[in-house]
Specification:
By secondary structure, the protein is mainly α. It contains six helices and no strands.
Length: about 140
């Protein structure tokens, strides 16, 4: 499978916050697709489950789960995202969790834009297997 919008995009030229902008949606789509395929729940129940899994604290825990298996390049992308300074602050998250979540989103955005979908899926499967992404 290719990216959804399969036009060239230089991930190296994008800021970590722009990578996180895309990665937030990529992570959200993975979570939502997984929940949808698990059961035909009412939409409000699907939304509640998804919201718990994509909040900053859950994403920070997920990031910590996959950090040991990241390549040097992936770890560098994660660090760039984690260390990026945004004017936005999460309402219900610690600053540390927010930064780790941004790092995870930047990594997922980078992998998606590079078309490294198998690696993206593998990392998501590690998160699922760890129980950090729970239903």
């Amino acid at each position: 499978m290719n990216r959804l919008f399969d036009k060239p995009c230089d991930a190296d030229a994008l800021s970590p916050l722009n990578l996180a902008f895309v990665g937030d949606t990529v992570f959200d789509l993975l979570v939502r697709e997984r929940l949808l395929c698990q059961a035909n729940r009412p939409v409000n129940a699907q939304h509640a489950l998804a919201a718990r899994q994509v909040k900053a604290a859950a994403q920070a825990a997920a990031a910590k789960t996959i950090l040991p298996v990241l390549t040097e390049r992936e770890e560098a992308v994660f660090r760039r995202g984690r260390n990026a300074h945004s004017r936005h602050r999460a309402k219900n998250a610690s600053e540390g969790d927010y930064h780790y979540a941004t790092g995870l989103e930047a990594l997922f955005g980078d992998l998606y834009l590079r078309g490294e979908l198998e690696r993206l899926r593998a990392l998501f499967e590690l998160i699922i297997a760890s129980g950090e992404e729970t239903t």
